[in-house]
Each structure stands twice: as structure tokens, then as C-alpha cells.
Amino acid sequence: MASKLSTCFVCWNLSGFNCVNHPNSNGRVVRVPFPASCRMRHRTTFSSQHKRQQIKPYMEVGLPKNQDEEEDSEITFNHDEFVDNTSDTTAPLAININGAEQAQQLSGKQIEDLLGMIRNAEKNILLLNQARVRALKDLEKIHAEKEALRGEINVLEMRLVETDAQIKVATQEKLHVELLEGQLEKLRNELAEKESTEERYAKVHDPQNGDLRDAKPLSNNDIIYPLTEELNSLRAENTSLKNAIESFKAQFSVVKNNDERLVALEKERSSLESALKDLESKLFSQEDVSKLSTLTVECKDLWDKVEHLQSLLDKATKQADQAVTVLQQNQDLRRKVDKLETSLEEAYIYKLSSDKLQKYNELMQQKIKLLEDRLQKSDEEINSYVHLYQQSVKEFQDTLDTLKEESKRRTLEEPVEDMPWEFWNQLLLLIDGWALEKKISMDDASLLREKVRRRERPISDTYKAYKEQSEHEAISAFLGLLSSATSQGLHVVHIAAEMAPVAKVGGLGDVVSGLGKALQKKGHLVEIVLPKYDCMQYGRVCDLRALNVVIESYFDSQLYESKIWVGTVEGLPVYFIEPQHPDKFFWRGKFYGEHDDFRRFSFFSRAALEFLLLAGKKPDIIHCHDWQTAFIAPLYWEIYVHKGLNSARICFTCHNFEYQGTAAASELESCGLDKNNLHRSDRMQDNSAHDRVNAVKGGIVFSNIVTTVSPTYAQEVRTAEGGHGLHSTLASNTKKFIGILNGIDIDAWNPATDAFLPVQYNATDLEGKLENKQALRRNLGLSSADIGRPLVGCITRLVPQKGVHLIRHAIYLTLELGGQFVLLGSSPVPHIQKEFEGIADNFQNHDHIRLILKYDESLSHAIYAASDMFIIPSIFEPCGLTQMISMRYGAIPIVRKTGGLNDSVFDVDDDTIPPQFRNGFTFVNADEQGLKGALLRAWNLFKNNPETWKQLVQKDMSIDFSWESSSAQYEELYINLAKTSQIGNEYNECDMVAENMLLVPLPHRPVVTTLSVRAGFDHGILRRINRLRVIEIPAPVMVHWVQVSFLHRYLPITGD
């Protein structure tokens, strides 16, 4: 397969340049820079592929090695000799190759030699150019010095000419002065003669020395008049001569000055002539002339050498181009040879494989035969498989149909998770409205509520279609869905005087809405009952509407109507009760603080229970809050259990034991409670004023479980000081009293989504907090000059409980430390409000203090976001939400260790607390020194360690203060209470047997009380059991069974 190759290799043998350093007259070595225009082209063609060893070298071409290669980066010149080896360059060698045996090829070593020669040529050219540039610079310098000397000579010559001209002018002026002096002398003589003539004339014509103009004329007028005219003309001439003399005197002084100037100019001329001679001697000194001539000669030589080097450079460039061309041809030839070798190898492999292929074909024939046999068998197997597959497809289709039916059934049974709670709450309110309006029965309403509580899809779909149907058709559709079902969650009804955000005064409103939403998320049905205040925020109530029904409740020995309104607040269903009482209980323009608050809220409590009874509701838990709804517990057990509202257990939460709702005992009669039965020391009689009743005490005694808002506060109220007179009642009911720390609504209080803030931010991006700080400063008119100035915030009710004297001290202390202080809040106490109004007036236009004595929801969010620190110096604090919200917004709390503050804020300097829980600054004593110490520690950390402060802010913002944990504790309490509802139902049957018997107290009754409370036994049932009194002879056995045997069925007897 070999073919005839014919090509021509041309190799240009380049010899190096032997050059030496070329010193100039000053002994310097000239180095010439290599210009960019002379760089070698196609350098990239010399790659590593030329260095690889060939499989079969077909030819070799000898390439003489350059003996004069130098690794040095300089070219040296000798002043007298210059070696040019270009004449020794060999002529191009052409070799014609005919056949593969005569082919030769350059070896890798020879190519490297060629590359080395080219590199040396580049170095030589570079050095030649450097020498050329330096020579040009020296020549330009010499020319510049020569031109400067010529300029100085020209200046001196011009000044010499000017001096000669000034001397000539001075000589002419001197001659002129001499001429003027002669004229002046002549004029002086003439003047003297005229003066003597005038005197003689005056003596002749005026013997009495009078004026000729005053003398009488002579008789001969023709003679006298000409003489008078001549005399006047002489006088005028005399005046002009005097003026001329003065001018000559001035010119004479000028001439004298010119003489002095002439002398100075002559001196200057002599000095210039001497300087000119010095310059001429310096310019034309023998040494300089010799140097200049030497430089001229050297410059000429350098120009000649540079031109010669340029010609050499051109030749070298041509030779390099020819070498590159030869190498490219060599590469082309090498590629062709590689292709030929590849073809030969393939042909050889093909020849070897032909024999193997024949053997392989024979083997394949045998395998094909075997495969045909197997194929026949596999066809039979496939047919059987197809039959089985058809059967399996049929079975799969049947199974699929079954699964579809089951999936459809499960879809209908599974709760609908994609609908918001507002949807279910509106549906629940619709069902309640139909029940109250007696359009459906109470039993049907209960069954429909169960479906809503389980969030079943059929009732969801029916409600969606409700808008397209008439009410009668919708009711029929809903009733068609009824079926028996069991509840999966609890039904909890909160009866309260506040709910955020529609009716909020303090933390109670936040707890009702926050706890309600958390329980709703856990799958429980939560409903709220509120008074319909005229001053609540109606804009925050969704779908508010009045039901076409009124309820009648007992009050002041007669029945009064109340109107029922329904709506949703924060996704929770809310029932608003509007009393139609002539006293307009809730149309007063405020929530609390009326003289008849006891009557207002006792009316509301009974109306709320009447509503639950009329609506046919069967709640598991009724949760009442504070003294305003503490009436619920005695009303429920004394009245409404007997009316059929008996499914619930009562949970009472006291948010602040300072407010207890006391009144004269006779006030209980208004809402239908028996004064004689309840005005007792173990029931509702006030522990301090025995002629009064205490609503909170009634809530404690008659409720199944009593809670307060933090564990520490639960311990504090057991003392005489903290319990405000109820410590003994709590001690006797201690088994059912517990403290649960409140949470906050993290959706409403979230700096990352807060719509009230100009800029949202989070723990990982705190830039927004600084922007909110600047925005608040602009809004309140505070100084923004120092961005890093700390801002201390305080949002509170200004009452003694909150430590108003410490708040006042914090204002002035912050100002003294160089910070800014913002207070938001008002006081129901007149003298406190007046005091802080005076402070606000004093700081009305201050750059760093601002007091806003009102409550503003949007401004409170802005203050939380802008503050660096938050002051909460409470004397006592049941729970406190302010510290939790401030930490949520990155404001470090400074608090007194009391109540819920002690349960949620842990001092950063307290070594007894694990570091991960330290989140603020605390103090113990409720005095100015305690507050000052804590504020100073916070101030120093903020100023001196900003990085640690930032980490503290980020940690506080990451703490979970949500209702998740607190609601779980309430949920556990509710579930335990709900289990006792069966006990209550069975007891009702026993109560019917023993209710009318005359009973006496038994000595073991306290044991029963202890057992019942410890096990979470229903206190209302226990109270009613303990009221049983037994006839001494036969009855004690029966009553003992009622009290002990009955309890043993449900309670673990512990031995107490």
C-alpha cells in the first residue's frame, strides 16, 4: 500500500550573532529594547508535537548546530569591531525525495536547536534596539543643552543693544539740559531789566505812589494811554516768564535724575559685558568643544550601527519566516505519513481478522440454530404469559376500580384541609343562626356542628353551593347530610370582656385571641362570646350581622331581651351580645370604669349562658376570664346545669388578682344568684369586707380548674401581699390552681411581615431595624444626628402596678446617659395622668424625649421595631406580653424580677443560668438604684461591645414565644376536665335519689375533698356532694356510698 511520496524540505541554517558590549565615550553599555513590531510570528506553531518520537523515521536531514548560542540576555558591542556572521549563513538546502527509502526528516533535537537560534536572534535584536534608543536620548539631550546656550547668548546681545541705546538717549538729554540752562540765564537778565524800567515809569507817572488806573488822566491823553497798555503787557509777560522758569526748574531736576540713571546703566552694561565674556569663555572652552565633537562622532557611529542592525533584523526576520514555512511543510508531511501508517496497520489487522471472522461465522451458525430452538420454546412461553397478563390486567382493572371507589369514599370522609378557618366559622355561625331562629332542631344543629368540626367534604361542598340556592333548599341539603358521628376534638367556648384587636384594654384581649387561634389550629372548635361595645373596632370584624332572634335572660326580677350578632375576628367565630336594657350597659363609650360595672358584667354573664342554652350548644369547656366573667362559674352550677346546659366543665383564668370585682352581697340577687346560699366564707364572701361578695373568689370556688398567667405569679399570689386577700382561698383550692405562661400571637407580632412598619426585617437582616429607628425619629420629631444613639422604649398602662416612679426615673436617666426615650401609654388614675402630662409638656420639643399619652396600635409596632432597649420595671407583673414582643422585635428587655417577667427574661450576667437562655437585664429591688444598675449594664454592653449586642438581639428574635407550648398545656387541662363530664352525668342520677333527704355532716368529708381535687374531680359536683347531710340512723350508709363508693369508680384512691 506504500505510495510514492514527493515533497521538498527546505531548512534554513541560521548562525547566531556574536556581539560584545559597546561602550560609549562615557563607558556606558548600550542596550537596545526590542520593539513590538519585530516580535517573532507564528511562534505557536512550535508545539510539543515536533518533539515526539516517530514510529518509523523515513529520513534524516542534518542541521548544523549554532556554536555561538548564548544564554545571556545582552548583546555587547565593541567600539572598533562589529562581527557580522550573516555572511556565513548557508544557502538554502533543497532535497528532492523520491521513494520512501530516501525520505529523511528533521529530528526533535535539531528542531530545538533551530528554536534556540531564533530565540538568540530575538535577544540580539532586543539589545540592539535598546542601544539605539539610549543613543537617541543622549543626542537629544546634547541638542537641548546647545539650544539653551544659544538662547542665553541671544538674550545677552539684546540687553547689550538696549544699553547702548539708553546711553545715546542720556547724552542727548544732557545736551538739551545745557541749552535750556543758557536760555534760562538769558531770561533772567531780561526780566531784571524790565523790572527796573517799570519801577522808573511808576515813579514818573505816580508821584503819590497810586495806581495808574486810579490817577486822573494827564492833559495829553494820546501820550498816556499807549504807555498804560505797554505796562500791562509787560506785566503779563512777566507772569508767563515766571511760569516758564518754574517749568525749567522741573526739567532741570529730571535731567539730574537722568544723569544718575545713566551712571547706573553704564555700570550694568559693564557687568553684562563681563558676564557675556564669561559665558563665551565657558561656551567655547576647549574641553567642552572636544566633548561636543566626541559626542557628535559617537552619535554618528551609533546611527550607522543602528541602521546596520536594522538591516540585520530584517534579514533575521526573513530567515525566521522561511524556517516557519519549512516547519509547516514538515508538519503536513508528518500528517500524511501518519495516515499511511494507520492505513497499513488497518490493512494488517483486517488480514488477521479475516481468518477469525470465518471461524466466528461458523460458531454463529451453530448459535443461530440453538436460538431458533429456544425461540420456538419462548413463543410458547410468551403465549402463556400473554394469557396470564390478560388475566392480571383484568384483576388490576377490578382492583383499580375498587381503589377508586375507596379513594372517593375516603375523600368524602377525610377532613378538608385546604379551606381556611374563616370558611368553617362562617358555616358554623350559619347553622347556629338557623338553630336560634328555630329553622332546624337543636339535635340537627348539633350533628351539623360535628360535621363542621370534622371539616367533612360533603358539608363543605354543600355550603359552597348555598349561595346559588334558596334558604329552604339549602336547609334541606344540609339536613340530608346528617349521620351519626363522634367528635374528634373539643368544643371550647371563651366568655370574656376583651378580645384583641376588636376590644382590647390589656393583655386579656391578646390571650383570648391568641389561645383561641392556637387551639383552633390543633383541631378544636373554639368560639368566643363578647359584649357588643359601642366603642369596639367594628372594622376588624368580618361579616358582622345580626341574627333574627332575641334571647331573654333574667335580671332584676324580670326578663330582658338581648340581641345576638355574629362575625369572625382573627379567623375565630365570635358572638356579640347586645343587651336591650334601659341602662344601656355597653353603650358607654368605654369598656371599663363605670360605677355599675358589677351589674353590667353579671348581666352579660347570665345572657351568655342563656345564649348557649338557647342555641343548643354542648361545649366541653367553658373558659371564663377575670372578674368580669367569673360569674359564669356560680351561674352555671347553681342555675344552668339544672336547665340542661350540663356538658361543660369550667376553666377560670385570673389575669390579675389586684382586680377582684367586689360589691354588696345584695347585688348577686340581680342576676338570679341566691345571696343567702353564696354569701358564705367558703363561697363568695369577700375575705376582707365580710358584707361584700367577691366575683374572683366565686370563680375560684366554683370552677373545675383555676389558672393564672405564669408559674412565678401563681406562687406570688399564694402570699398575703400578692394574693390581695385571696391567698387563703387559693390555699384551700391549691390542688386545682396552676400557672401557665402566656404566649404571643407571632403572626400579629412579626417584624418580617408587620404591615405597620416602614421596613420589614428579621434576625438575619437587622438593617431594617435601623431604618425603622430613623423613621420613628422623623415621625416623632426626634434628633437623627447620631444614628448610633440608643433608643429606649416603654409601652404600658401608667398605673402603680407598672412602677410609674421607676418609669419617670428611667426617662431622666436615659437623657443623662445620652440616649433617647419614647413612652406610649395612658393612665386611668387622674393624678398619674396629670403628672406625666406635665413631663410631656416639658419635653414637648426636646430632641431626645417624647411622651405619647394614649394608646396607638400602629405606633406601638413602630416603637417596638425602633427601640434598642425596653423598660418594664413592674412592681408586680402577672405575665406581661411586652417583654416577649420587644424580644420578638429585637429590643432587649430591662425588667424587674417578678411574675411572668421572671419566667421569661434571664439576666445576661447571671452565671447560674445557661448561656443559651440569657436574654436580657434584670433587677430585684423596686427602687431607682436597681433600675439604674440594670440600665447601665445594658448601656455599657451596647456601647462597648456592639458585636455581642448584635448576637444578643439575634438570639432574642429567635426565641419561640408563640402559643404552641402554652396551648398544649391548656389542651391537656381541657382533655382531663372533659373526661369528668361522665362523672357529672352519672352523679345527676344519684343526686335525684338523695336530693330531698335530711343529711348531717360526716367526719370523712375533708378526705373526699382532697381526693376529688387531686384527681381533677369536678368541684361543682364535689360541692353539691358535700352539701348532702345524712339522717344519723340508716342514711349514713347510703350517703357514704354516694361520697366514697361513687368516687372510687372514677378516682384513684391514694390513701389520703
UniProtKB/TrEMBL annotation:
SUPFAM superfamilies membership: UDP-Glycosyltransferase/glycogen phosphorylase (SSF53756)
Involved pathway(s): Glycan biosynthesis; starch biosynthesis
UniProt entry keywords in alphabetical sequence: Coiled coil, Glycosyltransferase, Starch biosynthesis, Transferase, Transit peptide
GO biological process terms on file: starch biosynthetic process
Domain Starch synthase catalytic: 491-731
Pfam families registered for this protein in UniProt: Glyco_transf_5, Glycos_transf_1
Positions of the Glycosyl transferase family domain: 788-931
Enzyme class: transferase
Enzyme Commission number, as recorded: 2.4.1.21
Catalytic activities: [(1->4)-alpha-D-glucosyl](n) + ADP-alpha-D-glucose = [(1->4)-alpha-D-glucosyl](n+1) + ADP + H(+)
Coiled coil: 111-204, 231-282, 323-406
Entry keyword annotation includes Transferase: yes
Record flagged with keyword Transit peptide: yes
GO molecular function: alpha-1,4-glucan glucosyltransferase (ADP-glucose donor) activity; alpha-1,4-glucan glucosyltransferase (UDP-glucose donor) activity
Homology family: Belongs to the glycosyltransferase 1 family. Bacterial/plant glycogen synthase subfamily.
NCBIfam families tied to this protein: glgA (TIGR02095), PRK00654.2-4 (NF001905)
PANTHER family: PTHR46083, STARCH SYNTHASE 4, CHLOROPLASTIC_AMYLOPLASTIC-RELATED
Protein name stated in the entry: starch synthase
